């Protein structure tokens, strides 16, 4: 039996990891975070750059596939701002027969988004925290979705509200 793959996407600071943690805890799903994998790659001395990011996506895909084949639901949190990144999860679903759902988190209030971003410290020594300018650059290059995607605005919905909606729709 193959599990479900739910991919939480969005710019840094929109609440992906917090919501993924809540949904995973409520449903017994496996939570995989790209940033944690990239952090461990960099901690091993790999040079910062595009290749380490791609390696993090591929390592996370492999872990997702392994868990999906075991019948576990998997919640991934990753920016997923390009078609290439999104193809990673399409590939995982195709290889395992998992049902794939994309969820995109946004913050409609730019001041709120910047405030949240500037106030966070995830303890990632090597990945670090992006600046507001970094987020603005990523926003400008964020690819349009070619997949069906469920969108939540975390400026107007709480972590619990978004987690409840995701849990009810995908992971019940």
UniProtKB/TrEMBL annotation:
Entry superkingdom: Bacteria
Please name the InterPro entries in this protein's record.
Answer: P-loop_NTPase
Pfam families tied to this protein:
AAA_33 (PF13671)
Q: What is this protein called?
A: Kinase
Q: What is the lineage of its organism?
A: Bacteria, Bacillati, Actinomycetota, Actinomycetes, Propionibacteriales
């Amino acid at each position: 039996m193959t599990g479900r793959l739910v991919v939480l996407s969005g710019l840094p600071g929109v609440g992906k990891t917090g919501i993924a943690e809540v949904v995973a805890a409520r449903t017994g799903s496996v939570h995989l975070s790209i940033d944690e994998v990239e952090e461990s790659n960099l901690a091993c001395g790999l040079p910062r750059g595009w290749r380490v990011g791609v390696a993090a996506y591929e390592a996370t895909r492999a872990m997702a596939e392994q868990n999906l084949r075991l019948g576990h639901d998997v919640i991934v949190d990753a920016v997923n701002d390009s078609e290439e990144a999104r193809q990673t999860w399409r590939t995982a679903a195709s290889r395992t027969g998992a049902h794939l759902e994309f969820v995109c988190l946004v913050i409609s209030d730019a001041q709120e988004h910047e405030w949240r971003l500037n106030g966070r410290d995830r303890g990632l020594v090597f990945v670090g925290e992006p600046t507001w300018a970094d987020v603005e650059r990523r926003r400008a290059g964020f690819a349009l979705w070619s997949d069906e995607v469920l969108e939540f605005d975390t400026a107007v919905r709480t972590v619990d509200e978004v987690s409840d909606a995701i849990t009810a729709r995908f992971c019940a």
